[in-house]
Amino acid sequence: MKLFIKNMVCNRCIMVVQSELEKLGLVSKEIKLGEVTLQNEPTPAIRERMEKALEKVGFEVINDKKGRIIEQIKKIIIQQVQQPGDGPQEKLSSILSSGLHLDYNYISNLFSEVEGVTIEKFFILQKIEKVKELLVYDELSLSEIAFRLNFSSVAYLSNQFKKVTGLTPGYFKKIGLNRRKPLDKV
To answer: Is the pTM value of this prediction over 0.85?
Structure first.
């Protein structure tokens, strides 16, 4: 049985979900961002307890098709930002369409309708949060960050950063070690 879980954005989320399932005696075959495959279907009573337990730790079981698609979109975008590939970047629209096997116009309209923000804006917000993380780690130059996250230039990264945060990357680095948002709040 497959469940779709909202707000799973990192490996720590996977560990928390797994722990909550184990507390209820549920055995999972596989847990990945946004998805859990259980070995057996839980009884309605156990399912209700599971949903409440997951809600207490910030997650939510998604029961509708549109919600599942939205979470899959977010999962793909987060993966693209967290683990960008080497070489030329494939268009996000192509990645989403092929990953979800849906028309991009449908995906885009659904996401905007449900989330109140475009996919492109959500993608930029995720990238800016990653820039903040890399600035805080202070291991890469702004040029290296721009290259790693597939920004066309340092100037474009700086402009997007200032548009989103109101600060330049350099000023953020100076003052803002704790200004990052959790990924599920972006």
So the answer is: no
